Amino acid sequence: MAGWNTLVQAETLSIALGRTDLVILDCRFSLLDPTLGEQSYLRSHLPGAAYAHLERDLSDMTRQGEGRHPWPQASAFTEKLSRWGVLPTSQVIAYDDGDGAFAARLWFLLRTLGHEKVAVLDGGWARWIALGLPLSSTPHVAASGIYRGDFDGTRLLDAAATQAHVEGGGVLVDARAPARFRGEEEPIDRVAGHVPGAINRPYAQNLADGRFKPPAQLADEFRALLGGREPLDAVMMCGSGVTACHNLLAMERAGLRGAKLFTGSWSGWIADPNRRIATGP
After folding, report:
1. In contact, 239 and 176? CB cutoff 8 Å
2. I want to staple 183 with a disulfide (CB 3.0 to 4.6 A). Which of 17, 130, 140, 279 is the partner?
3. Residue-range domains of the chain with CATH
4. Active site residue: 238, 250, 261, 271, which one?
C-alpha cells in the first residue's frame, strides 16, 4: 500500500482513522514548560494517538556537549517505536500544536532509520480542531511489537564534521529567527550569534497560513538558497537540532532529498568555547 512520506492533510487522515497499519504520534511540547504537551495529550488527542515527548523520547538528555536536545541512540529510539506499536510496515503520522517543528523532529528520526512511510499532519492540531474532526481522551495502550534499525550516520553531523563541511564549500543553513542568527538576541542559549559561514533560512518561511507552502514554491526557494549546489551538499541546523528538521521536511516535500542535519546545532557548537562565533547578517 502506498503511503504518505512528507505531509498528510487532516481531511485525508480523518478518513484513514482505524487503519490497522496506522500509528499516530502526538508530539506537542513547550520549551517553557516540558510537562505541558503531555498534559494536553492526556486531556484530548487524535483517536489512537500515543504521546512522544521531545526530551524523554526524541532526545537523549544524558549526552553532554551535544546540544540541548542530543540525538538519541538508535537502540533507545527503536525501543520507543516498539512500545508505540510502530513496525517497519507502519504508516506513522506525527503532529504537534505549533508549526510542525516537533513533529518534523520525529519525522526525521524515522527517515534516518530508513522508514519511508512517515508524514507530518499539515496544519497540526490547530487545523484538526478547526475542522471539528474526531478526538479522544483514551490513553494509548503500550504495544509489544519489535522495531529494529540503525540511523544513517552519513546524514547526521557533529560540530567537527559541520566545520569541515563549511570549510569545504558546503552549504550550512540555520533555521533560527533572524535576530537570533545575527546575534542581536538569544533567549535560550548562553551565547548569541551563528556558525561562521552559515546562512539563515528561518523555518517559519516554509509556511503560509499555518500550512506548508506548495512543493513548487518550496523548491524554488530552496534551490535559490542552494545556489546551484545539490541537496546532498546542504546541512541544516538551528538551536538544538529540532526546528532544522522542519527545513529538512520542507526540502523533501519539494523533491530535494538528501540534506543532512547538524545534530547539536548552535547549542552544540558553543559547548566548546574555542569555536569561532559570527554575528551580523
Report:
1. yes
2. 279
3. 7-130 (3.40.250.10), 153-269 (3.40.250.10)
4. 238
